[in-house]
Please model this.
Amino acid sequence: MATREFGREERVGSELQRELALLLRDEVRDPRLNQVTIQEVRVVRDLSHARVFFTVMDRDQARKTEQVLNKAAGFLRRRLGERVIMRTVPQLHFEYDHSLEDGLRLSALIDQAVADIGPASSSPDTNEED
Model:
């Protein structure tokens, strides 16, 4: 069974992620976008649209940051077109990435469950005298 190679969508998404991160760092002057991190870019098969997942330091600002990024999508797409060699650059759709928060919440739940179990890790049903 052969391992799956990166497909065209993954390669394009990876390149767009890299370039968007550089654009946000070097060319976007909006102070509301200073703390944005591009987590992942998922491109559809025909490369016409891309979902851009981002995180921001202050998650209370996530909704506002998403609106600002979606307003700036045209500018970012145009700048990507100048930097990336592609026939057409996908339309960008920015979405806040909740996966980090979900991971932290699950980790806290696991820690709480382990703490609730306590030091008695062996159940009373196990009997070594058999």
